[in-house]
Amino acid sequence: CPECDGAGFVRKSGATLRANAARKDQSQIVCPRCNGLGKLGQIDK
Fold first, then answer.
1. Integer Cα distance of 21 and 37 in angstroms
2. Stated pTM of the model
């Protein structure tokens, strides 16, 4: 989805959620919008 850019995961950075694969020091959490699937409305991987 647009929130995680198809990755299915977002990295917590302050108050905003941001997908950034380069920042390994930040905790990786499942994207709340698509539930880690990468696409909105997708049920299975």
1. 16
2. 0.40
Based on C-alpha coordinates, what's the Rg of the chain? 10
Separation CA 33–CA 15 (nearest Å): 16
Rounded Cα distance, 9 and 4, in Å: 6
Q: Residues 6-38: pLDDT tens digits?
A: 777 776 654 444 555 455 555 667 777 777 776
Residues 6+ apart with CB under 8 A from 10: 3, 4, 17, 18, 19, 28, 29, 30, 31, 32
